[in-house]
């Protein structure tokens, strides 16, 4: 797909710092359910930020508050320098939202629905811009088609075109690739990167951890209404990722010999596997010493492999740790 050019995505207010600033945000629904507790979050201008969390963690609630769809109970949110409650209109024009649900008027044409979305923000008609958005999203040939005749993937792209029609600087994508096939998912990723490269800040929520691993510059994890971690993706994987050395033994061990007690070892596969967990970042992994000791103990192995924990492992550990 061709890169999307959002030339109008000029920063305003607070240019060097955060493009979204969330402070002390809380939400208690009318039912009394507390969906968000004291959330602090800074989104940096120009980044792709992935918000991860199990079902019901509060992701949609958080996005909906920032986009002005749900009222916060406590706290302050600034979007590109504008308070989302006191300065709602200015804040809202900076934001594009691609919601989870595909909701467009089935009988309208692609062109009309995107044009209408721009009009909702009180922006003057700009056919050249709409044309460019549709071309960039490979929707130009379908501009006169009724939405109901489009494939699911195309409908999703129409939702993105609508969200971009008023030239936002911040784009929220709520589960952008849910139920989308692998090829289209890759297309979406490419498109999102192109948008980011043109200066649009992207915040996405996803259930696909590989999506966050592939796309995000930073990752935030939300669980039970609380942000439990925000970190650069590479730092996160570096810091929390474990590495393991797995040795396939010639003969099974019934128990770990006392001589090996100084190492973080476990037996698996009925004693045929010796698993050593170590810190890949430390100068001294301990592998050389362990192998020497195994030799001294007469423990032979026929194969060895290493494995590194994925973002998924890290995520599961994090969420379980707080459960
Ligand atoms: N209008 C509402 N009234 C009462 N409770 C609500 C309302 N909307 C959401 N909730 C509750 O708030 C919690 C957070 O919901 P939210 O949709 O923000 O989670 P989520 O992280 O987006 O989940 P999912 O991954 O399933 O989309 C859930 O327990 C949900 O049932």
Protein architecture, described:
The protein is α/β, with parallel strands linked by helices. The protein folds into two domains: 18-238, Rossmann fold, CATH 3.40.50; 241-322, Alpha-Beta Plaits. The chain starts with 17 loop residues before the first strand and ends with a helix. It is built from ten helices and 14 strands. The model is unreliable at 1-15 (pLDDT under 50). A hairpin with a 2-residue loop joins strand 4 and strand 5. A six-stranded mixed beta sheet has the order 6-7-8-3-9-10, sandwiched between helices. A four-stranded antiparallel beta sheet has the order 2-1-4-5. Strands 12-13-11-14 form a four-stranded antiparallel beta sheet, with no helix packed on it. Adenosine-5'-triphosphate (ATP) is lined by residues 29, 31, 33, 35, 53, 55-61.
The set of bound ligands, ions and cofactors reads: adenosine-5'-triphosphate
User: Per CATH, what is the topology of the largest domain?
Assistant: Rossmann fold
Task: Please tell me how large the radius of gyration is.
Answer: 25 Å
- Average pLDDT level: 87
Could you give a short account of the major beta sheet?
Answer: 6 strands, mixed
Number of extended strands: 14
Strand order, largest beta sheet: 6-7-8-3-9-10
* Number of DSSP helical runs: 10
Distance between the termini: 41 Å
CATH architecture of the largest domain: 3-Layer(aba) Sandwich
Provide the CATH superfamily of the largest domain.
P-loop containing nucleotide triphosphate hydrolases
How much helix, percentage-wise, in residues?
Answer: 25-40%
Q: SS-based structural class?
A: alpha/beta
The proportion of residues in beta strands is 25-35%
What coarse outline follows from CA principal-axis ratios?
Answer: elongated
What low-confidence regions span 5 or more consecutive residues with pLDDT below 50? 1-15
Secondary-structure element series: EEEHEEHEHHHEHEHEEHEEEHEH
Write down the domain tally: 2
CATH class of the largest domain: Alpha Beta
